[in-house]
Amino acid sequence: MQLHFRALSGTGPRIRVIRNDKLRMYVGTSYFFEYELSGVQLEEMYTHRNSTYLTFTWFIKEHSELSSTTYYQPAFNDLRDFRIATDFNLTFEITKHFAFGIAGSLLYDTRQPVDVPNLIYRMEQRLVYNF
Length: 131
Fold this sequence. Notes:
- The structure is a single chain.
- With 131 residues, the protein is an all-beta fold.
- It has a single domain (3-129), classed as Porin, CATH 2.40.160.
- The protein has no helices and 8 strands.
- Strands 1, 2, 3, 4, 5, 6, 7 and 8 form an 8-stranded antiparallel β-sheet that branches.
- A hairpin with a 4-residue loop joins strand 6 and strand 7 (98-109).
């Protein structure tokens, strides 16, 4: 089975924890509604979830920074059905116009469609040109 389509819609507050020259950090929580279409027979699933997250940007030096957001997303009707996801980006400025970056993401989902692994990850290197 494959996941053909996933759509999310939701809202919630975000609170600033720290904001200074070196670090910005926020926490948030929200409700969201999820629609998924998966499988050979295009099965539809509707789920109500909470999404609690922590996001930060650390300005390591004048020309480098690390940013990350991590989410915990349990279903309201079954707390054993949850996702943990994180995205990160590490960037180093090489020159005024060029930067090098490493980015990645990780998703652990306890209820993936059949034949979709519970753990999915991605890593990439980036060469960025700024106009």
